[in-house]
Amino acid sequence: MSVAISFKDIVKKYGDTTVIPELSLDIQKGEFFTLLGPSGCGKTTLLRMVAGFNSIEGGNLGFNNKVMNNVPPGKRNIGMVFQNYAIFPHLSVSENVAFGLQNRKVAKGELQRRVEEILDTVQIEVYKDRMPKNLSGGQQQRVALARAIVINPDVLLMDEPLSNLDAQLRVDMRNAIKRIQREVGITTVYVTHDQEEAMAVSDRIAVMKSGIIQQVGTPRDIYQRPANLFVATFIGRTNVIEAKLESGAEGEAVLHIGSSYSLAVPGLQAELKSSGTAAVKISVRPEEFVLAEEGAGLTGTVVNNIFLGLSTHLVVALENGQEVEIIQQSATTEVVDIGRKVTLAILPGTVNVYDAAGERNLNRGLDL
Ligand SMILES: Nc1ncnc2c1ncn2[C@@H]1O[C@H](COP(=O)(O)OP(=O)(O)OP(=O)(O)O)[C@@H](O)[C@H]1O
């Protein structure tokens, strides 16, 4: 049985230090939800609250509306997977997986059936009689995952489960984790500081900074409409450029970037104060720039070109000296020579406009 998890005005203090000030968040039943943020932002602290390993200094943690604050960890029916596998070295793969079921006094026939079924789900049935020391890191992590889900937990918690694996295996394993979670449908809370991993596995992501949630959304929402410049720069790569927002001839909001580029941005008229102008910052991802005809964009000079097969990265120095990155698909373009003057335009509808402090996305609420 999967549950919905709610954090209502949750506070976490260590001694006199508050690391989570009044955080509220709802995770839906069956959802793959990821806590993402830089080191020390409070991801593990929140996860440990769900598990019952951390006290809660304010607010309520709920599973399906039942307040869980003081329910001991052993009574929460939770499966957990950590970075360091934590499987028993003296038990074989199937004995490791059977362990939780034996503890729960599941009858032998049922136990065997469940173990086989889960080993099949995580695709390690061929290793069922092996000892952990004879398994690769990825295989050990599959055992840890099997052991966590075989007990039919209400919630699956995963804390940086792929950190010890090499790059290629991380990609294989995150695909496996996503597939398995979809198959078994358990509400999953996943902690990582790797934004690409978060995007690959999650239904929704909460981006955190200093114990405060900056944005909750689907991977696409967070990538394409970051709530503030912290999120925009933490998720993926982006170019942040100063610009001016002004009223155009028809009363529409127009962005002026550099000395020569103007771009109408629908829906932002209300942001213009009575003076009709506002200093803003814009975020343009490298793939949101395109090379344009002279006079139809920002002018600059190519200072580096890096051919990477699938794509070519150009670094362009703008008139004011700021360097921006642009990514083009290699197949459709030639590599532009270093030293060449180019004009950069922004793909329609992609630009995100922020207040001068970078704290508020003025485009929020616009369709993707
Ligand atoms: N037992 C503790 N006593 C005091 N402070 C703690 C304790 N555990 C964590 N903290 C502090 O709480 C904050 C949040 O830590 P937490 O481990 O939740 O961060 P995190 O986002 O999971 O980081 P990482 O990605 O490095 O694991 C940090 O400033 C950390 O130093």
Structure explained in plain terms:
By secondary structure, this protein is an alpha+beta fold. It folds into two domains: 5-233, P-loop containing nucleotide triphosphate hydrolases (Rossmann fold, 3-Layer(aba) Sandwich), CATH 3.40.50; 234-355, OB fold (Dihydrolipoamide Acetyltransferase, E2P) (Beta Barrel). It is 23% helix and 34% strand. It is built from eight helices and 20 strands. The strands form four sheets. It has a six-stranded mixed sheet, with helices on both faces. Strand 12 (253-257) and strand 13 (261-264) form a beta hairpin. Helix 3 packs across helix 4 (137-149) and helix 4 (137-149) packs parallel to helix 5. The longest helix has 18 residues, at 167-184. It is globular and about 75 Å long. It binds adenosine-5'-triphosphate. Adenosine-5'-triphosphate is lined by residues 14, 19, 37, 39-45, 193.
CATH superfamily of the largest domain: P-loop containing nucleotide triphosphate hydrolases
CATH topology of the largest domain: Rossmann fold
Mean pLDDT: 91
Hetero compounds: adenosine-5'-triphosphate
Strand content: 25-35%
Reading off the top of the CATH hierarchy, the class of the largest domain is best stated as Alpha Beta
In N-to-C order, the SSE pattern is EEEHEEEHHHEHEHEEHHEEEEEEEEEE
> In the CATH hierarchy, what is the architecture of the largest domain at level 2?
3-Layer(aba) Sandwich
The 3D shape can be described as globular
The domain count comes to: 2
Number of strands: 20
Q: Helical content, roughly? A: 10-25%
Q: How does the major sheet shape up?
A: 6 strands, mixed
Strand order of the largest sheet: 6-7-8-3-9-10
Query: Rg to the nearest angstrom?
Result: 25 Å
Instruction: Show unreliable segments.
Output: none
Distance between the termini: 34 Å
Structural class: alpha+beta
Pfam families: ABC_tran (PF00005), TOBE_2 (PF08402)
Keywords: ATP-binding, Nucleotide-binding, Transport
Organism: Paenibacillus phytohabitans
Protein name: ATP-binding cassette domain-containing protein
